[in-house]
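User: Hey, my collaborator sent me this sequence without any context and asked if I could get a structure. I don't really work with proteins. Can you help?
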Amino acid sequence: MIWYFLLSLHFVVEIVGVLSHWIFLQISLGMISISMIVMLVSYLVETLVCLSIGTIYEDAQCAELPLKTVLLCIHRYAEAFSLAAQMFFTNERVMSIQFEHIHRSIFFKIFFIAGFLFSNFTGLAYVYTSAIKGEYGTFWLIAFQLFVIANFPFVLYAKKISTAKYKADVRTYSLKRKHNLYNSYEIARSFLYAAAIYMISQLICFGLLWAFQFGLLFDGNRAYFPRLFFVISLIWHANLATFPWIVMLIHRSQRERIYKVWMQMFTETKSPSKILGMNGKELVATPTQNDYFDQLQQSWK
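Assistant: No problem. I've predicted the 3D structure and written it out in structure-token form, which is a compact way to encode the shape of the chain:
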């Protein structure tokens, strides 16, 4: 039950996109969330299948089971799709922050379709070469580590430019644009910490793989590779299980919603209603837009 509760929280990552009222952001986060859930569930079932024959490792005996092969294809497709979608999502965020009306352009629609096709192609290529043909396993492992590591600078850049634009003079942008920049800042900020932890864990996995390749682990004996892969898989899937927690607890408005639900479920006292500003602090209503902007500017400082 605890495992599936953790899985269900990945949908909360999608909610962050839904609240921004951008259909492209909703679809992007939806693809990431669903692929993460499919990957985790399929890996759980894979592990149970291997346990049914008395082994916890993905060794040759377990790999011969037909059900294990089907689950492996599903798992690896979702894994590759998720990583490619995260790269695509980060680039979409950077473009959306830089250019206000880019979602209306033909270029962006082509880019969006190309990103979706690329994510699917990556997943299918990984399934065919690794799960079906049994080749290029090490290549894909290293490539996926590089995917995660390379994604972090883009997330950092998205946070930097959204912060710079949001801190501009309050009359530089319209209220709608200011609100969208705030959403972009909050999403980039929450994903930055999650991506940083994700990147550190992938660097550890990357180091383990290279240590194995150079004979520093298990003397490079391929017979022990299933044990190493088991450890790497645990690190990967622990990241995926904690990823939505990190995002939700750092995202201020979502954290406030979680707190309200918690208070309603586990306490008898009701928290008082209050209006929050864009920095998460209590806001006193003011009559004009300029006064509202001025107060937001002071709150941000």
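In plain terms: DSSP finds eleven helices and no strands in the chain. You can pass these tokens on to your collaborator as they are.
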